[in-house]
Amino acid sequence: MTHPQANGKGSRRPTSWWLAMLRRRAERMYEEELDISEPIRFASPVERDAAVAFFNAAYRAEESGLSQAHDLAAEVASWDPELAECLRLYGDEEGWHRSLLTRFLAHLGGEVKPMGRVTGTFYKAYARAERADTIVLANLMFETIGSTTYRLALRRATHPAVRQMLTILTRDESFHVPLNVHFLRETLRHHAGEGGGGALRASVDRLRLDALYHLLFAALVASSAASRRRAQAFDHIPFRELSTAYAEHLARLFLHERDLRFVPSSALLRVFGLDRDALARSEDLSVVSVEAAERAADRARVTVSAL
Ligand SMILES: [Fe+2]
Ligand SMILES: [Fe+2]
After folding, report:
1. In this structure, which residues have their CB less than 5 angstroms from ion ligand 2?
2. Distance 94 CA to ligand 2 centre (A)
């Protein structure tokens, strides 16, 4: 089966291409099992607690992703049923991650914990967001830092069960990043096409979205400090490396998807030793690239044809 190479870039594929990918992934998704036959031995209770904190944060991200995707699907159905179906299948993938994480947390000897004050406030604010473009932009940024975190953690993880859990998350979130670029592009186009309220309304909306991009950029980079306090004893990623990686990926993604018109602050990037022009020119060889997303989707096809 060949897919149309719409406009060259992977994230510029049409909705039908994404839908075909998501359907193919869904066919086999629930058959993939976690191998939790061996108990995980931690070096110390501190490391174990940090692992539980790490996967609790992952759990909350999945839970939020699932409900936002399904809520959006219901809304989008009125103007683009095909895109709505993509959102529904995407939410299902997050729901599957959530169920894997529930089991995995139990295997770690932990459980799903109530959210802390800061995390709770954060997700409540996000859950109250109403406009589709706001939700999709925020979600795309969450997916970007999620896949960055998992990839960095995977580089250091040694236990097979931890590696398997992180591999599944890394692989799938890497597919979700360009998928959310597509959602954002389509949502922006829809809002632009609506035209209600005129040019002034449109520019106010755009300013609000820009402000959200910069606010979330700073908040997510700063969140790496709080996550270091809770999870570093498990994932061993130093603050400097994680915060720099967040800044790099949140910047490069949007610099490459130029038509979305979100431009990171060069002053903020300089704090992390990053140069905006150099990022715009450099290729992202990590799992958050579109090419990697295609590999992630193809992986499902390879498994299917191997039977
Ligand atoms: Fe996920
Ligand atoms: Fe995701």
Report:
1. 143, 173, 176
2. 6
Ligand 1 centroid – CA 97 distance (Å): 5
Determine the distance separating the centroid of ligand 1 and the alpha carbon of 178, expressed in angstroms.
14
pLDDT per position as a tens digit, 101-132 = 999 999 998 888 877 777 777 777 777 777 88
Q: How far is the centre of ligand 2, averaged over its atoms, from the C-alpha of 203 (Å)?
A: 30
How many Å apart are CA 293 and CA 289, to the nearest integer?
A: 6
pTM, entire model: 0.88
For the chain, where are the alpha helices, taking DSSP H only?
A: 15-29, 45-76, 81-107, 117-128, 132-156, 160-194, 198-235, 239-256, 266-271, 276-281, 290-306
3-state secondary structure of 259: helix
Model pLDDT for residues 26-84, shown as the tens digit of each residue: 998 888 889 888 888 899 999 999 999 999 999 999 999 999 999 999 999 999 999 99
| Separation of alpha carbons 251 and 262, rounded Å | 9
Instruction: Return the closest-CA partner of residue 59 out of 179, 221, 135, 169.
Output: 169
